[in-house]
């Protein structure tokens, strides 16, 4: 797998404004700054999607995201915070390296996220649910 831009940041090959770093994760300011305080939380080890995270790495990255969100909330006092995590190109993933956006939000900040609701019946939802087998 080709090193992602985030892997290159982890290696120190590219500069970044770091916010936090531990054994498994790194957090740095998003170069695009949708709103001031927009942070990327990424795994240090390059895995592409949430489906590739083992339980330990998943816990570590979400723990870091929560810590960073609390810090962003204290520092910027936004009206809200959106955590966004995307997988595969059809799911809006643009960097092939697992990461979570911690995005401070304000009324009318221009950020949109929408999808058409289908509103299936409970019976239809139950059929869909039976197809999913969650494994430990």
Automatic annotation (TrEMBL):
Q: Which residues form the HIT domain?
A: 5-112
The residues annotated as the active site are: 99
- Chain ranges for the short sequence motif Histidine triad motif as given in the UniProt record: 97-101
Q: Name one GO biological process term.
A: nucleotide metabolic process
Specify the superkingdom: Bacteria
Q: Name one GO molecular function term.
A: catalytic activity
Name of one Pfam family that matches: HIT
Q: Which PROSITE patterns match?
A: HIT_1, HIT_2
What is the name of this protein?
Histidine triad (HIT) protein
């Amino acid at each position: 797998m080709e090193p992602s831009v985030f892997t290159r940041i982890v290696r120190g090959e590219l500069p970044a404004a770091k916010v936090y770093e531990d054994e498994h994760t790194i957090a740095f300011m998003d170069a695009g700054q949708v709103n001031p305080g927009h942070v990327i939380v990424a795994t240090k080890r390059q895995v592409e999607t949430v489906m590739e995270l083992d339980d330990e790495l998943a816990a570590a990255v979400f723990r870091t995201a929560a810590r960073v969100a609390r810090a962003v909330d204290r520092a910027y006092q936004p009206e809200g915070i959106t955590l966004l995590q995307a997988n595969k190109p059809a799911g809006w993933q643009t960097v092939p390296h697992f990461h979570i956006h911690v995005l401070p939000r304000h009324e009318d900040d221009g950020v949109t996220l929408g999808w058409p609701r289908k509103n299936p019946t409970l019976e239809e939802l139950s059929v869909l649910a039976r197809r999913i087998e969650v494994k430990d």
